[in-house]
Each structure stands twice: as C-alpha cells, then as structure tokens.
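Data availability (excerpt). The following record was deposited with the supplementary files.
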Amino acid sequence: MGKSKRKKKVLASALSLGLVFSSLPYAAAAVTPVDGYNLADGSDFEENNLWGFTAANSTVSINEGDVKGNTTDKLQYTIVNASGGRVATKNLETAVKGKDILVKLDWYPGKNNDKGSRQFENSGELRIMDNTGNTIFTLNNTNTEAIEYFAGSQAPAQTFITNQEAWYEVSVHFDLIKNQAVLTLKDKASGESQEYTSSLEGVAFDGSVKTVKLVGIRTSGNNHSWTTYLDNFGVYNVPIPSNTISKVDPLRYHQVYVNETTSDLTSIGLPKTVTVTLADNSKKEVAVSEWRTVGKEWNPESTGVYEFKGTLAQTEGIDNSFNREATLYVYNRLTPPGTERQTEWLDRGVVALKAENGNFVSWRLLADEYAKDVTFNVYRNGEKLNSDALSVTNYQDAEGSANDTYTVETLVNGKSVEKNDVKALGEDYLSIPMQKPEGGTTATGNYEYTVNDSSVGDLDGDGELEVIVKWYPTNAIDSSQTGMTGPTIFDAYKLDGTLLWRIDMGLNLTSGAHYHQFVVADFDGNGKSDFLIKTADGTTSYGATDGKFDSSKVLSQIGNPEDNGKWLAENGHVIGGPEYISVFNGETGEVIDTIDYAFPLGDDKGASWGDTWQNRSDRFLAGLAYLDGKTPSAIYGRGYYERTSFVAYSVKNGKLVEEWTFDSNEASTGKSLGNHNLATADIDNDGFDEIIAGSLTLDHDGSIIYAMDGKMQRETGSHGDALHVGAFDPDREGLQVFGVHEVPAVASLELHDAATGETLMSYFGSVDAGRGVAANISSQPGYEFWGWGGDTVETGGGIYNVQGKVVADSSRDAGLSANFALYWHGDLQHELLDNTSISEYNETTGKTELVKAFEGVHSSNGTKATPTLQGDIVGDWREEVLLPTNDDTELRVFSTTVPTEYRLYTLMHDDVYRNGIAWQNTAYNQPPHIGFYLGEDVREEVLAGNLQAPGVDYTASVQSMKHTVILETKASVLKNSLDQVQHMLKDGKTKQAVKHMEDFKKHLTNSNVDEGLKAKLLSDADQLIAGWK
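Predicted structure:
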C-alpha cells in the first residue's frame, strides 16, 4: 500500500470508529488520535482532497511539495494581488457538539505582502465559527506582530510566534463546563509549546463548531497577497446524550414603551416558554421558571435595552447539564415624538409637462395641508377643466398642448385662496441652462468640467427650490489614486438658469468623489438655505451679473489666497496647511463664517488615519441632522477604514459652533466600521437625529449608541459601500437599516433594527458585496432587499422580503439593478433608477422591465452611475431625476407624467427624506428613503387619507405666515395685513412693510387665534421686523 493510500485508509477508519489507532511520523502523519475524544470530522488532504474548502477571489489547492519539511499533501490557500472578497470556507457536514470540543491542526501561517515601502500591512486570519454563525475563536497573522488570538470579539493577545514561515501544531480546546477556550501552540521544529486560556463569558457561542475560515484582511490601497497551509485537520468531541440541551434558540428583542409597564416584571410580557435545540438537533419547548435582570435593573420609566436571563425549568426527558439559560433583550422604547422641526415653506411647485397623451399637470401639497380640507381646480387658458374639486395633486389633460397656460387654484374649506400659473413645456422635463466653467491644465494634463452631484434648498426664500451643482474636473481622482487635479467648482442656479453665485474650491483641496461633501440647509433660521463645506487657503466665491458668472465680483476669499496650491504634494494629495469649515450665504454666496476644521490631517502625513499616502485620511462624509430636535446642524466625517471621526457644526448668531466631536482613537472603539456614506434620522424616538455611519451608530450628542460588534444579537459589521435607512416594515414601529459589507468574513447582506442594532436577517456570501438596495417592489407587506452577495439564495443572491420571506432565488436572474430606488409610477411601490434609465420588477414574470430611458444625458460618478440628484423637487409627491446633457450645457429635471390616485404631502416635509436629500451627494451616493411606510398593502389607508403627517414649524417669512393664517384661522384681517406687507416689500418700501407688520401683530394679539399659534406668528413677525430694520 502506498503512503497516500495508507493515510486515507487510516483517516477513514478513524472517522468510522470515532478513534485513531496509530500515529505516524511527521512526514507521513495522518490526523492524530486524542485520548478521550472522538474524531467527528477531519482531513489529511491526501489524494487531492480539499475537504470541501471553497474560496472567493482566491484559490485553494493541494500542495504536494516540500514546505519547510512537510512533504505530505497539504491544503494551500493563496491570495494573489486581490482587492475583493478574500476568504476560504469549510462548513462541516454536521455541527460538532459536546461537553468538550477540540479543533486540532497543523498550520503554516505564511507571510502577507506589504506592498513595497508602505508600512501598514495586510494580515490573514484563521477563524472558527459555530452553527449560528458566530466567530468564536480567531488567530491573526500579521508580518510585523506576533501571531495574536482572541475569543469572540475580545481584545487580541499575543502569542510567542513571531516566525510566520514555520509549521505549528494548533489546538483549540472549547471546555463548555468551565466555559473557556484553551489555545495550545507547538513549534513543530523546536518542540516549544505554550498554552493560552480565554474565558468564553460574554462570547456569543452556541456550543458547537460548524465552520472554519481563512480570511484575508487588506489595508486600504493595498491589494492582498498571502499563501498559507493547513494539514492534518481534525475536529474532536466528547459526546453528550442526545437529549442534552446544546443551546437555547435566540429570542427576538421584546419591545415595550416607556411607562406602559410597571416595576413588576410580569407586566413586561416575558415569554413563559422558550425553544431549545438538543444535541440530536431536535427542537423542544421548555418552560422558564424565573426571569431576572442582568446588569441594570428594570426601570419602566427609563428608555434603553435591558438584558434578562431565564432559568429553564426541570423538564422530564431533557438534560440541562450545561445549565443553559435563556437570554432576552427588552427594549423599553420612547413613544414617537410630536415635535415640530424647523421646516422649509415651499410654494405650490406647479409643472406642466408633455405626456404621451396631451399634457400632465402636477403640484405640491404641504404637510400641514394633508389633513385639512384643501382641494384644487385646474384651468387651461382660463377654462376650468375639472367638474369637482380635486383632492389629488395631478391632472391629465388629453387636449393640452405646448405653451398652454395652466392655473392651479387652491381651495381651503371650499374657498379660493391662491392661484398659480405655469406654461406647458414641449418636453417631459424642465431644462436648467448650465454655465460650464473653463477647463485648464495641471501637471497631470488638460482637464474640462462635467456636472456631478447636486443638492437643493430655497436659497432666496421665495418658496422655490434652487439647485447647487458641483462641477467635477475630468482629472478628478479617487483617494487611493495620485494626480494633480483641477479645482472643484460649485454653482447655485434658480430653476430658470439664473446663476446666483460660483465658488472655486481652489487647489488646496483635491478633487474626487471622497472630497467636497457639502450640506445645504437653513442653518441660521432666516428662511433661506445656506451652503456648508470644508475649505482651504484659496477657496473663493464669486458673484454674477444679470444671472451670468462674473469673475470680477469676488465675494469672499478663505484663508490666504496667495497660498492657493501651496499645500499639495507631488501625488496630488494635500499634506499640510490649514483646513477649514465654512458656511456661505445661500442667496449671495458670501461667506458667513469660517473656523478651523476639527480633524486635520496631522503632522504624520495621515499615519494616524491608517496610512501615509493620504488614502484613508482623505475619506470625507457629510450629512444634515437635527441634533436638538428643532434646528439643523451639519455632520462632517473623516476616515472610516481605520480611524473614524465626526464633528457636528451649528450656526448661532452668525457664527459656526462646534457642537461635539467623536474620534475612535479617543474613544478606543468605533474604528473601521464606517461606510462610503451615512444617514441621519431619529431612530430612538427622542426627537433628536442620530447618525448611522454604516456599522457604527452615534447618538445626537456624538456618543456611541451601538456598533455592529457581534454582541447582543448584532452581526459583526465592517466597512461597506451601500446603506439604506427607512421604515421598511409596516409591522415594526420605527426604522430599519440595510447594508452590504466589504469584508468577506462578515455578513454580505444584513438588515437590522435602527434603534438597537438587533440583526433581523443576514446572508453570508464570503464576498466583497459592493452594491445593495432596499425598496418596496412587490405586493407583499414590507420592503424587499437584495445585493451583490453570493450566487445562491442561501448566500445573499436572492430577493428577500424584510418580513423573512424569499421573493425570488436570484436578483441577478431577475435583472434587478442595485443602485437607486424611486417613486415614479402612480402606485405605492418603487421603481429602480440606474444610470439613465428607470425599470420596475414584474412580479408575474419575475423579471425587470424598462419603464423609461432618458436620452441625451449622462449619469455621474463612473461605474456608480448615479443621478446628479434624485428628489421630490417639483410637482406632486413623486420624485424627480436630475441628469445633465452629454455636453453639460443643460441640467434636465425629469418628472413623471403618470397620473396617480394617491394624495400625499411632499416628501420634502418628511424628516428622514429631507435629511436624505442633504446627504445624498456624499461619496458613494445613496437614494433618500422616507420615514414612514408606503406600499400597495396599505393602499386603503392611503386612499382614506389616514397617514400621520409630520408637524412643521416654518421658518419666518411673509409667505409662510400668510399660508398659516389662511390654513389655520378665519381672520381675514390678518391675511389682509400680510398682503400689504408683501406689497410694500415688492415696491422696496421697507419702513411701510414694518408698519403693516406691526398692524398685523396688533390684530393677532386681539384675535381668538390659538395661543400656541399666536405665539409662533408673533415670534416670526418680530424676527422679520428685526431683519428689515
């Protein structure tokens, strides 16, 4: 019998008998026996037996050569210059259980590459996982450090091994009685051996071993190369009786509301029985004899997550010799708040566009009008078209043609209060002429400008949204690249193409997708949106003459203009000099204030951020958040691959104020969990917005609420490329988070509760999942989600409903794009936007069908193929798509021409959605989501007008005050006074406007208007008077 055949026979006998009879010399050794244990599974990798290992973006093979004295067949795992998913996986046919479990193998760690002179290196890990998917033990191999180990998510500890190019015997002994893991490492050449013990207390571990993974971990900018070897791999156990409880099945978080329970634990509704899994994998229901709190005591008046342990009752025929207990997390949640946030007052936003049949007219309904008796009439060229007043906000006119004049008349309680005229266009889009900046030349070469991202805000306070457009130089770079870029430029346009101002960001700020994140919002509460962005020496704003760019009108210069370009290194990255945050007046383009940015690069060229070539340091994020629940603040982030930072800015009394900072270096936690994007929303019902930064969630004060850390039924997270936050499940109050992850060893697709981080669904594809979407595309209750996970439905390749159902086995076969989702048709489901076309999912055929292809325009951001902006900009509640023409001379605002029977208020008055419009431009752009649930399953509720519209607190303006007076009062004298104010302001007679506003105050004070509303209107009047004076 030959050597390999003899080894195979020995192994087969061992597996069949549960023990090994002989021990061979190293060169010919098989899986070795261990006294007192049964061999449950294993392999010596002879005769080209991979033992079921599979690999993603890497290879597994059998090496028959001599590797440091080992001439037997062995498993070789190789990563070559890889950037995507890097993992090899072995799933045991049956999870191994027992009171003792032993994993024993020979391991040659091998060197990881360090990409030449770059000092920060890649690493490789050997991971052991249980049947639930928890990583229970890890060995980490990095060139510059001793091999480290850790149980669960504990802090790593070093071993004696510093030579990666040698063979070691590795034993990991899981003692379920003592609740500990004992690692034994033995140098096969020298015989040196050391033992390390880790407590399993607090480690998520279901008492089994199911999976082994080899995982490549790369630093940003470093592709990864690594070769490692395994041999003589055995998984052993000391069996337990088949009726032994191996684990208590996880319980979903139990949610109650503050003050709806008492201090008596029975009032919480804790379960009386739980499901357990026995050693033979059968399921049984077992009673809980007692529940007790762990850690903080139950307080029905205090919000938060409480941990309870349940003692299992003695049950006939069931053995609980491991003393398993049930764990239940109870979330004592605040009830939804009734706060009113500072809100933009918007005009009717009427548009009349060419449709397939005549003209399509649509207009805006405000949030405070939704529950009121507000209806409409439509006129074409003075002729009324509808017989009965319309409650919906759209009208299809089959007889209409281009240049017809449409009038939308607003009725409040049946009385006409407002008329808005618009001329019908000959296209199905609005055209905004662009003033393309001149190109230039850098050391990299010539460049021109293209329209890139944009955002909207009411810059001049007239109730119409303006557009701020980012101009991208064609030599812009990714942060991981090098090159001298042209400066990024921002323009502010009215919808008719009138230019308000231009800002040249200067040469001390590299151009690219990860730079120049900006926020448009009314930070100072004057009814006009402002523009906040990171600036540098040389940033300059210019004015316009007759709506055209005028380079002679220098409005503001930031820092030292003579230092423009001084702080650039040869690689095109900024390596020094001052870094600022500036806020600009949205109407004039003049700077309001500039202060030092909280997190500069530092004197170490970015080493504190994770590298010294400014890749990890040059990763910026920005968002809008109502941190005090009332007024907007800007969130600005730097770093997420390694060190992660955020700072919050507000504008008070004309000055930028730094509200708080978060730095993972100072917090000693929170690093490496951020995304190429973020979202902001009130996730815990405290009325204040939180920051969802991928797998890290910060409270409104900058403290960590939770991280996706593998604890408390949260999957382990990582950096990711796509993030979606919204109300996805009609049966769950609150918001959910769906994301995809770059690190192949964590869940590729993961859905969790936004407030607690509790993972609701997850799929492991062992890939770098670069795309993912959450959208309501089926008639089933709840959103669907999908992404670039594995190839099977089990590994994240399917279409999944958030309520746990599988809609289809393959999103790829269905042809679903994984980019943006929007409301375009007349129903309550989403369509999908990708590049320059809209498609929809056909439930009957299971395929995606084209809805609309936009011609003559281009998308932005390369392969990301995102729109310049998607949002509810004009017309009814459906969304517009902003795309520039191929020559960048025009920005087209495409709006739907499909009628709808649904009456909804503008999405811009939904808090979550409005925030989303502000952060949409950040890095890898994501679509905005709404903070309430829509779907065809709630059709009757929507048709009945039973949605709960948010409260609004309009910023002070004559228009918003007049709107409120008409809607909320019957006092015609108040409206007349405001009419006079408007008339005087239009004629430039400010003193007379003040007089009429004072008259308004007198009439209001003497009226029987609700006292709360009266106080608000008086405050707005005083604010306006102060501004006019």
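Summary of structural features: The first helix runs from residue 3 to 17.
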